[in-house]
């Protein structure tokens, strides 16, 4: 096929490589961009030069395009003069003016994939590299968190076990002593160590590192006191809201609760009847309220030193966590603990908690 000057000018005006191929698989003409790509004019060559590695695929593509006036998509991989392979995306279609089967010339227009999409491909590669880097960082952080969680759980477990050993030693010493005063002191000390062990048990099962569920501490401590016989002859009831407290308040809270419940069990009896002890936990705006009420005879702080003696420890612990206690006699004794709560970010800077 020969091209007129006007047709040749239009053919050369196509920006990307373009080839005019006969239905028999011969290149009839190539535009300037195609000649520059191959380093020579391929006119007269077999169409296989457009993809030396897959000549059958090229012929199949030309055969399909020769039967359609709509573009057929394909891919070619011709070799440049330096021997490098260029990957071209192309579409081919039969020229609409072809009248006979022998004259089914196919126009193939190409665009270099790497040139057209170079910026996009580079960006995709950068994003993939960034994704891999972030996944690596995430994997390292997750592994560090798992190690930290394991270490924290092991620490809580060991502390809990050590406290239980200390509590057992105190209980053994209590059983061996002949002094009633020493026995009472050792029993109280063992109960207080047990209260701290209860906190460690809750922390061991708790997933938060900066807060602890106060209601879980109350439940666990009451179970421990019941199992240890402190609440023998008592009828404890619980009314607990779900309350989270700063972790530094956990041990003082357990000791305070142990002291007040033990006092209620010891001194709340009236005429030998079982003592009804109610423990309540609630949260209001700005305060967490813990109440321990019994149906005993009550007591007067100004005159009764026996029952009030343990309140000195309670007051000292409350000073540590910024709380206060109220004692009232309403059909028995009711001790109410008020703990001020603050947003986490404000708590360390608030002098009123000291």
TrEMBL record:
Enzyme class, first EC level, given as a word: transferase
Catalysed conversion reaction: ATP + protein L-histidine = ADP + protein N-phospho-L-histidine
Domain Histidine kinase/HSP90-like ATPase: 248-343
Highest taxon above the source species: Bacteria
Organism of derivation: Rhodoplanes serenus
One Gene Ontology MF term: ATP binding
The EC number(s) this enzyme carries: 2.7.13.3
Alphabetical keyword list: ATP-binding, Kinase, Nucleotide-binding, Phosphoprotein, Transferase
Stated name of the protein: histidine kinase
Pfam families according to UniProt: HATPase_c (PF02518), HisKA_2 (PF07568)
InterPro entries: HATPase_C_sf (IPR036890), HATPase_dom (IPR003594), PAS-like_dom_sf (IPR035965), Sig_transdc_His_kin_sub2_dim/P (IPR011495)
